[in-house]
Amino acid sequence: MSTETNCTCCQCSCTSAMIGQPAPDFVMKTTADIETLSSTASLSDYAGKWLVLFFYPLDFTFVCPTEITALSDACDQFKQLGAEILGVSTDSVYSHRAWINTPREQNGIAGVRFPLASDMTKEVSRKYGVLIEKDGIALRGLFIIDPDGVLQYSVITNLNVGRSVAETLRVLAALQTGERCPMNWEPGDKTL
Q1: How confident is the model at residue 15 (pLDDT cuts 50, 70, 90)?
Q2: Which string of DSSP letters, residue by residue, matches 83-110?
Q3: pLDDT band, very low/low/confident/very high, at 16 (cuts 50, 70, 90)
Q4: Which pLDDT tens digit goes with each residue over 135-168?
Q5: Phi and psi dihedrals of 113, rounded to 5?
Q6: Most exposed residue of 25, 29, 30, 52, measured as fewest CB within 10 angstroms of its CB?
Q7: What end-to-end distance do the CA atoms of the chain give, in Å?
Q8: What CATH number did the domain enclosing 56 receive?
Q9: This model's pTM is above 0.70
């Protein structure tokens, strides 16, 4: 069960994303249908699947496309682990579509293999504790939600540091063992 707290950024009543508790619910427009932009994604859409939900600051920036294209390039590895990926920023789906239609060599993310969601209301970014209120953008937050909708992993970094696809895959595989995994555990290693 999520907890209600008064956040220090805006003094609102926010739902906090807590490890071991149900992940905060969401409904956002996505680029799943790139032509009409009429698709939405909700937490319930991922019931029975692992979800890698990640937030990034803005479309058409510098570090963000390196993360998004790296996650996209590893999409088959995530699918082999039964995981879906959903990217989120506070940009509109129209901005997302323009970025998806921009070639990678022009700082775009053409060919991205998972949808990007629009959190223009900033509600979801608040719920997951990644919103920089004064700027209206999200920190780099990455959350792994299990098939039962329970938040199992979270990492939040500042704007200038990209995340590791290899580490995300490692942690996902470790979580799926249901066992105790020591430091630097890799798939195939013994658990405790």
Answers
A1: low
A2: EEEEEEESS-HHHHHHHHTS-GGGT--T
A3: confident
A4: 999 999 999 999 999 999 999 999 999 999 999 9
A5: -105, 15
A6: 25
A7: 29
A8: 3.40.30.10
A9: yes
Q: How far apart are CA 184 and CA 175, in angstroms?
A: 13
Number of domains, the chain: 1
Q: Where in the sequence numbering do the catalytic residues fall? A: 64
Is the pLDDT score of 120 beyond 50? yes
Q: Which amino acid is at 123?
A: E
CB 69 within 8 A of CB 103: no
Asked if the structure places residue 74 within a domain, the reply is yes
Give the other-Cβ count within 10 Å of 192's Cβ. Answer: 7
Contact 167, 175 (CB under 8 A): no
pLDDT at 8: 45
Q: What secondary structure letter does DSSP report for 62?
A: S
Domain that holds residue 70: 49-163
Q: Which residues pair with 155 in a beta bridge?
A: 142
- Whether residue 21 is contained in a domain is answered as no
Predicted confidence at residue 5, as pLDDT, reads 41
Report yes or no on 174 lying in a domain: no
Query: On the CB side of 92, how many CA atoms lie within 13 Å of its CA?
Result: 4
Residue 126 lies in a domain: yes
